């Protein structure tokens, strides 16, 4: 399963498209043409143009169901992390499957409700909840606030008092565990802004227990994203279990433990622990606790259910480098620029020639934005012609949700595929919409 799909040469990295798609359940090549489920990618492009995000309904559901199957022996709740992909269609599919949600803003909660999500299965994470965020969430009947500081705790108590409605809370504990991932997406270290330190947690719980409108229901931790090993999860769990025992000794009983999200995915050659292996490592410790277990997976549910489709507009070979300028850019997909993320780029139609033939050269796949940081992939061996359609795989998570309008570019369209059907789930943003809310300065 973990076989390499790449060949590194002096010129660049070759990602074998067929070997790659063998690891991506939603995608395969048929007679050299790329398909998602039963829909040809070229047909999607014909209907919706590029750049365009395309997601497989089945791939989303399959991962969700492997979480529920792997933890079937425990009472559990999968709270999909909305920030990974917040399109209403994605949320609606997961809501129908019974998922709960992990949100970090009022906007995300509104999306969940609009998509038919059940508010009592929503947990509210994040370090900067405001009075009005808390008021809205509590009025709607939020399942739990994951509290990150003492000042947030007192603010929640104040809001709850004014609404005369006790607020269900858990404390997000920072276990000081190294998640061994990119520093920007590591959250469980002392130096990170997240959570309440392991050392102070019991004291803060005791403080919470004194507050009139706080209802302690759980404990929570999230140590980072794109974790490929199970050891940091186990280390964090051990620390949280220690706290649960100390709290029990002090008469503070909890209903749930929330282990956050963070399970990594295979983008190209990574070998992340599988959901089942993850479950096997945690289950023995979790079963002893007798608590409901929450998880907040985002990336692992949607990343490999999605691709970003883009067209090659200009080929620009230079003395030092060859640039393929495509119609997607860092505003559509910022992960390569922001985290040095390596994502695979594969053609919608396989070239008839192979890697060591004349047609294949090393290309930087870049956008048209006026920044050197505007790249989607570097030094990739591909055989390209203008007009070709490329698919960037693994783009279902933190792709569209992190996109922007930089350089006054409209955001891409989004399409869902299920079996042999395709459907637009978000229109391409019009350029007029980009300035529709702006006003000219009036001199008088
Ligand atoms: N729960 C909390 C409290 C989180 O902060 C996150 C992600 C998750 C759950 C979901 O984690 P996941 O299962 O998706 O790893 N933009 C970055 C990833 C940022 C993750 C932020 N927090 C990227 O593109 O790699």
From TrEMBL:
InterPro entries documented for this protein: Ala_racemase/Decarboxylase_C, DAP_deCOOHase_LysA, De-COase2_C, De-COase2_CS, De-COase2_N, De-COase2_pyr-phos_BS, Orn/DAP/Arg_de-COase, PLP-binding_barrel
Keywords, sorted A to Z: Amino-acid biosynthesis, Decarboxylase, Lyase, Lysine biosynthesis, Pyridoxal phosphate
GO molecular function, one term: pyridoxal phosphate binding
Catalyzed reactions per annotation: meso-2,6-diaminopimelate + H(+) = L-lysine + CO2
Cofactor requirement: pyridoxal 5'-phosphate
Domain Orn/DAP/Arg decarboxylase 2 N-terminal stretches: 64-303
Family: Belongs to the Orn/Lys/Arg decarboxylase class-II family. LysA subfamily.
Protein name: Diaminopimelate decarboxylase
Species the sequence originates in: Psychrobacter luti
């Amino acid at each position: 399963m973990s076989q390499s799909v790449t060949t590194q040469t002096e010129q660049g990295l070759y990602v074998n498209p067929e070997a790659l798609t063998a690891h991506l359940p939603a995608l395969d090549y048929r007679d050299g043409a790329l398909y998602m489920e039963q829909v040809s990618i070229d047909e999607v492009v014909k209907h919706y143009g590029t750049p365009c995000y395309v997601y497989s309904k089945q791939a989303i559901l399959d991962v969700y169901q492997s979480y529920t199957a792997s933890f079937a022996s425990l009472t559990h709740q999968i709270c999909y992390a909305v920030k990974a992909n917040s399109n209403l269609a994605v949320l609606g599919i997961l809501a129908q499957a019974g998922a709960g949600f992990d949100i970090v803003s009022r906007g995300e909660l509104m999306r969940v409700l609009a998509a038919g999500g059940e508010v009592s299965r929503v947990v509210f994470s994040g370090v900067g909840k405001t009075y009005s965020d808390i008021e809205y969430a509590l009025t709607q009947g939020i399942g739990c606030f994951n509290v990150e500081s003492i000042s947030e705790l007192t603010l929640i108590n104040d809001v709850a008092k004014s609404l005369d409605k006790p607020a269900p809370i858990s404390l997000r504990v920072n276990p000081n565990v190294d998640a061994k991932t990119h520093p920007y997406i590591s959250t469980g270290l002392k130096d990170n802004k997240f959570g309440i330190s392991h050392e102070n947690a019991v004291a803060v719980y005791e403080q919470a227990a004194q507050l009139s409108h706080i209802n302690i229901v759980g404990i929570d931790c999230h140590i980072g994203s794109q974790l490929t090993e199970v050891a940091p999860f186990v280390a964090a769990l051990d620390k949280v279990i220690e706290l649960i025992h100390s709290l029990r000794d002090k008469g503070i009983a909890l209903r749930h433990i929330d282990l956050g999200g963070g399970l990594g995915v295979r983008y190209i050659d990574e070998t992340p622990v599988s959901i089942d292996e993850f479950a096997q490592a945690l289950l023995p410790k979790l079963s002893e606790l007798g608590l409901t277990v929450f998880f907040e997976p985002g990336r692992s549910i949607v990343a490999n259910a999605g691709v970003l489709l883009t067209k090659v507009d200009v080929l620009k070979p230079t003395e030092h480098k060859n640039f393929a300028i495509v119609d997607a850019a860092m505003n559509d997909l910022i992960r390569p620029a922001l985290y040095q993320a390596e994502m695979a780029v594969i053609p919608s139609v396989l070239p008839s020639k192979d890697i060591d033939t004349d047609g294949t050269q090393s290309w930087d796949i870049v956008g048209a934005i006026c920044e050197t940081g505007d790249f989607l992939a570097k030094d990739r061996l591909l055989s390209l012609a203008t007009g070709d359609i490329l698919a960037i795989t693994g783009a279902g998570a933190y792709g569209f949700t992190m996109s922007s309008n930089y350089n006054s570019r409209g955001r891409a369209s989004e399409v869902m595929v299920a079996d042999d059907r395709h459907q637009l789930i978000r229109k391409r943003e019009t350029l007029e919409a980009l300035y529709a809310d702006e006003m000219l300065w009036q001199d008088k």
